[in-house]
Design a protein that fits this description.
Blueprint lengths: L6 E5 L3 H13 L3 E5 L2 H10 L4 E5 L7 H9 L7 E5 L4 H9 L4 E4 L4 H24 L4 E3 L2 E4 L4 E4 L2 E3 L3 H12 L7 H9 L7 H15 L9 E4 L3 E4 L7
Parallel strand pairs: 1-2, 1-3, 3-4, 4-5
Antiparallel strand pairs: 6-7, 7-8, 8-9, 10-11
Length: about 240
């Protein structure tokens, strides 16, 4: 039996663009479905899980950003590549902060999109292999992180984290005491490192601190090392 092809859903309301994307991705060996609205796209995702989502922002009804938010509330992590005519940096940053794995501005090269799809799926494969080889629960003081179940607990209390917040906390917990710049964190956790996106790290750090610090205004676990970046200190027992 052959290997089942990776399933990709394209949510794009421009029929010509959707057709071109589907033809080219199928030529690369992917199984591709298309939907023309956010509502039908989300319905398909709930009925037929896939390996990657290619998502337009400007959709009728539920727009792409709302779709992105909904997908990030689903239990299983689904990589998302946004394709949009909204090429302003603010839109790219917003899309990435909402959990998109990559962002392409229209018009774009089909070859570039295919390359981005391959890159995102390779990163997912690498993350799964790493999780399988490092699947034991990580404990630092009161903090316990299960990489396989993707759950974190602080003392007896579960910590509710988005997928990206969990990835960021897990990365820090695997490298306690080491200082990482914002660009290094973007590269290691998000999979890209571009100047101008550092505030994406800042916003995620602020949200993480609000969830795990005893006093988020004076963090003791996720510490800022001024002029260098951030480092992780184990939270004390008894929290």
């Amino acid at each position: 039996m052959g290997v089942e092809p990776r399933r990709i859903l394209v949510i794009e309301d421009d029929a010509d663009i959707a057709r071109v994307l589907a033809l080219n991705l199928r030529a690369e060996g992917y199984a591709v479905a298309t939907e023309a609205s956010g509502e039908t796209g989300l319905a398909r995702l709930r009925a037929e899980p896939c390996h990657l989502l290619v998502l337009d922002l400007m959709l009728p009804g539920i727009d792409g950003l709302a779709v992105c938010r909904e997908v990030r509330q689903m239990p299983n992590y689904l990589p998302i590549i946004i394709v949009s005519a909204k090429g302003a940096e603010s839109q790219r940053v917003l899309g990435l902060e909402l959990g998109a794995d990559d962002y392409l501005s229209k018009p774009f090269s089909i070859h570039e999109l295919v390359a981005r799809v391959r890159a995102v799926l390779r990163r997912m494969d690498a993350a799964e292999v790493l999780a399988a080889t490092r699947s034991g629960t990580i404990r630092h003081g009161a903090l316990a992180i299960d990489p396989v179940a993707r759950e974190a607990r602080l003392g007896a209390q579960p910590v509710s984290l988005t997928a990206r917040e969990f990835d960021l906390l897990l990365f820090f917990a695997r490298h306690p005491g080491r200082v990482f710049t914002r660009l290094q964190l973007l590269d290691e956790v998000w999979g890209y490192a571009h100047d101008g996106y550092e505030h994406t790290v800042n916003s995620h750090m602020n949200r993480l601190r609000a969830k795990i610090e005893a006093d988020p205004a004076h963090p003791a676990v996720l510490v800022t090392v001024w002029g260098r970046g951030y480092k992780f200190n184990a939270p004390p027992e008894g929290r």
